[in-house]
Design brief:
It is found in: Cell membrane. The chain has 310 residues and is mostly helical. Helix content is 77%, strand content 0%. The longest helix is centred in the middle third of the chain and has 36 residues.
């Protein structure tokens, strides 16, 4: 198992190295373009060339790449062109906001989706199973901007119960988290519930479950002790992979509700052409995607004895 984990970790490092090189190649090859992004579109060629000389951009490409990687490993991503502040300060603040949003979503979504998925899988083909499956498919099929628009129209303009934005301009207020969290839970819980339902239904029809039931073991004990653990292997990997989606895939929700998180930061950086901020956000998003896959593989090995002892 340790050998498999080491291989997964080595592959994660290799992927990060390749992605960082490709990222630097895309954004830093056109030196005059970089200077234009920093100095503005109205800067002259002479001003750009002087800036390139002062900032070491006339050195060999590989030397600049190695220096950039070294600074990135220390958390130094340069200065944001738009926000006029160090990228790392801006980045960690926005990551903390998205982390809080993700924590609230997970705290609701995971118990809800697992409970509904297990109930549906235990009674495959029943009315309860059909209702849960129908609700899961409908909510997952509705994109975030559509459900956000509907919820705002209902709870903000019609009932006037909730605020329409989550900018937290007057400090943190939990009530401003309600709509963003609800939109994300509605969109994501159905997918995890369907995965849990399929896994639970498969486990309930397996031979060892039938044998345990025929031996006269209580149904509750069969489900909790034997079925549930094996049924949660596939949902576990799916839930871990949702970290990547919650980090970089919440752009629509954060922009819609003006929530100052990592997704909105990516949107602002891409819209303004903030090159150093784009590089930092891309590296962080790729790292989370690769690391979540690594954690998912480790968790799958721990939960599945066939892989653990192979």
């Amino acid at each position: 198992m340790l050998l498999l984990a080491a291989r997964r970790f080595a592959s994660m490092l290799l992927i990060m190295a390749v992605i960082s090189f490709v990222l630097f190649l895309i954004f830093e090859t056109d030196k005059l373009g970089v200077a234009g992004k920093v100095l503005g579109p109205y800067s002259s060629v002479q001003q750009r060339e002087l800036w390139l000389e002062q900032n070491g951009y006339n050195r060999p490409f590989l030397v600049r790449y190695a220096e950039w990687v070294g600074h990135a490993l220390q958390g130094d991503f340069g200065q944001s062109v738009r926000f006029k502040t160090p990228v790392n300060v801006l980045l960690w603040d926005r990551l903390a906001n998205t982390g809080l949003l993700a924590l609230c979503v997970f705290a609701i979504m995971i118990p809800l989706s697992l409970l509904l998925g297990v109930l549906a899988g235990m009674r495959e083909g029943s009315i309860l199973d059909r209702i849960i499956s129908f609700v899961s498919i409908v909510t997952t099929s509705v994109p975030e901007f559509a459900s956000a628009t509907f919820l705002v129209a209902l709870f903000v303009f019609k009932l006037r119960w909730l605020p329409g934005t989550s900018s937290m301009t007057g400090g943190f207020h939990w009530i401003e988290m309600v709509l963003p969290v609800t939109v994300l839970v509605l969109y994501d819980f159905g997918y995890v519930a369907r995965m849990t339902r399929a896994s639970m239904a498969e486990v309930m029809t397996s031979q060892y479950i039938r044998t345990a039931i025929l031996k006269g073991l209580p149904r509750r004990r069969v489900i909790v002790t034997h079925a549930l653990r094996n049924a949660l292997i596939a949902p576990f990997t799916v839930i871990v992979l949702q970290l990547n989606w919650l980090l970089s895939g919440v752009i629509v929700v954060e922009v819609f509700f003006a929530y100052k998180g990592f997704g909105k930061l990516i949107y602002d950086a891409a819209t303004f052409g903030d090159i150093y901020l784009i590089e930092a956000c891309t590296l962080v998003a790729v790292f989370v995607a690769v690391f979540s896959q690594f954690v998912s593989d480790l968790g799958y090995m721990l939960l599945n004895p066939r892989i653990r002892f192979r």
